[in-house]
Design goal:
22 strands, alpha/beta, Rossmann fold, 25% strand, 514 residues, binds magnesium ion, 17 helices, binds adenosine-5'-diphosphate, disordered C terminus
């Protein structure tokens, strides 16, 4: 039997933005009825390539064939006519319109030809039932969560009769349960004969759902695989261009004395809602305690209380001394007592984006003796120190005079991590350490965290990435609805058990560790 004609074929696509060659001579064949993954690190050129396919950008060179026919796609209307639908990384919905209005928006050809709302409503209902895409047609977009907004984007594409659906990093904004649901939707779409292109930088998603996968690196298409015939290490190596350690290499912890003792911590927010409902745990020197949970179950509040910026009741002791949890503790007092903090949101809390890298490397620590004495700061020493730390933490480029905002997200994170780890804390609070960070940099940051642990630091790790929690932690506590649902030794649990606790299924096992 001859090979079927590809649903999409790209030949020699190139695209530059000024000096940046975002796509270089890209070729790609996507077979009909398959789920085809495109994987690559941040900046590899994935979104640019898909934007060309959707008529958002014009390629400088190259050819697009849809179902074997050369097709010009000068704008998104042409893409829609060619049967292509796109779910963008940042949704393009009208916030104060209803679901139904958003779905039909732009399809009506002027007021007289407007399809009757009733007809559109019926069609939407049929689509929703066919593909498990339930959503209330009369809900206002801004009132529904991101998971539902994404379903509206998919419905919009299907309503426009898309046969080929492109999803750009669709799970970045989803909880694990929402991501599972999305994958069920994608499988339903595939079963109905749709072709799907899934852009992601997550190896697990590629392995779980795709039939084939193409790898991009620095603007080039570097490899194609059948998913069943490849493996995460092989894909990671293709993405990064060198071997990458996916498993964190660490020896069993040797916990020392308790560093942090938290008793019955409670937080009530401005609306009177209880966000922490009696949290208690202990964390020892030389140990990583991972806090797992779906975002929004109190983990952020816990970090803020310990970081000193949120008021709580209960008691927190650091090395036996009571810690101020009035919410007014000064950052400097926290740092002087031996607490370092890599906040969840590095852009607003961890860095001053307009300041140079060297100023950010010293941020909060400029009173330390290494930087001069009294009121006189030794700027040259601060700059040399920043250069040294940036080199050791592989910040690219290692130029202390560049503004923080000119670094990529992963490199900004390395700047914050370098500053906090190098402060030699007794306790490190670290929230979402690798959010938006490339695989190569993740490996590096994980190594630094483990090596800090091995020097005796107590580490409280908060992450919504269950894989990260499982590979880094020595002990794991799962938060749900402001409580700790259960605690496990990392070596004696797995994603399935933790997933149940994350969903709020009560912990029946007796006793909590430590
Ligand atoms: P990915 O989606 O794989 O993360 P992108 O396609 O967004 O990568 O970006 C590829 C490269 O092109 C990056 O270096 C990015 O900074 C650059 N780039 C993307 N869009 C633009 C644009 N509109 N103007 C200038 N540079 C851009
Ligand atoms: Mg992108």
């Amino acid at each position: 039997m001859p090979d079927p004609v590809p649903a999409i074929e790209l030949r020699g696509i190139s695209k530059a933005f000024g000096p940046v060659q975002a796509n270089k001579d890209i070729s790609l064949r996507v077979m009909p009825g398959t789920i085809h993954g495109i994987i690559g690190e941040n900046g590899a050129g994935k979104s640019t390539l898909m934007s060309i396919l959707y008529g958002f950008y014009r390629a400088d060179r190259g050819e697009i064939l849809i179902n074997g026919r050369p097709t010009a796609i000068p704008d998104s209307q042409a893409a829609i006519r060619a049967g292509i639908g796109m779910v963008f990384q940042h949704f393009k919905l009208v916030e104060n319109f209803t679901v139904l209005e958003n779905v039909i928006l732009g399809v009506e050809d002027g007021p007289l030809l407007r399809p009757s709302l009733a007809k559109a409503r019926a069609e939407l209902k049929a689509l929703a039932e066919e593909y498990e895409l339930e959503v209330d047609p009369d809900a206002i977009i801004e009132d529904i969560g991101v998971g539902l907004q994404q379903r509206v984007e998919i419905l919009k594409a299907l309503y426009r009769k898309a046969d080929i659906l492109i999803l750009d990093e669709p799970t970045g904004v989803l909880t694990p349960a929402e991501a599972d649901h999305l994958f069920r939707i994608l499988r339903n779409l595939q079963a109905q004969g749709k072709t799907i292109i899934l852009i992601t930088h997550k190896l697990r998603e590629i392995m779980e759902i795709t039939d084939r996968v193409s790898v991009m690196r620095r603007g080039e298409m570097v490899a194609h695989f059948r998913t069943a015939e490849t493996s995460p290490p092989e894909l990671a190596e293709a993405m990064v261009g060198r071997k990458v350690l996916l498993e964190v290499d660490k020896t069993p912890a040797r916990p020392g004395a308790p560093v942090l003792e938290v008793e019955n911590l409670r937080v009530v927010d401005a609306k009177g809602v209880e966000r922490l409902r009696g949290i208690s745990f202990r964390l020892h020197a030389g140990e990583i305690l991972g806090i797992a949970g779906v975002a929004g179950n109190g983990q952020s509040e816990l970090l803020e209380v310990l970081g000193g910026t949120m008021k709580a009741t209960g008691s927190v002791r650091l090395k036996g001394q009571a810690l101020d949890i009035s919410g007014n503790a000064l950052g400097r007092a926290r740092r002087d007592s031996g607490i370092a903090h890599v906040p969840e949101d590095r852009q607003t809390r961890g860095l001053i984006l307009d300041f140079a890298a060297w100023e950010n490397v010293a941020l909060g620590y400029h009173h330390r003796p290494a930087y001069g004495s009294g009121t006189r700061l030794d700027l040259a020493a601060m700059q040399a120190d920043a250069r040294d730390k940036m080199q050791r933490f592989d910040v690219r480029p290692p130029d202390p005079f560049l503004a923080a905002k000119s670094f990529s997200g992963g490199n900004q994170q390395k700047i914050v991590v370098a500053r906090e780890i190098e402060s030699a804390p007794d306790l490190l609070l670290i929230g979402q350490p690798t959010r938006g960070v490339d695989i190569g940099a993740i490996e590096f940051i994980h190594k630094q965290i483990v090596s800090l642990r091995d020097r005796g630091c107590a580490i409280l790790l908060v992450s919504v990435e269950l894989d990260e929690i499982l590979s880094l932690s020595d002990r794991i506590a799962v938060m749900f609805d402001g409580r700790i649902m259960g605690e496990r030794e990392a070596a004696r649990t797995d994603a399935r058990e933790l997933g149940l606790l994350m969903a709020g299924v009560a912990d029946t096992a007796a006793g909590r560790a430590a």
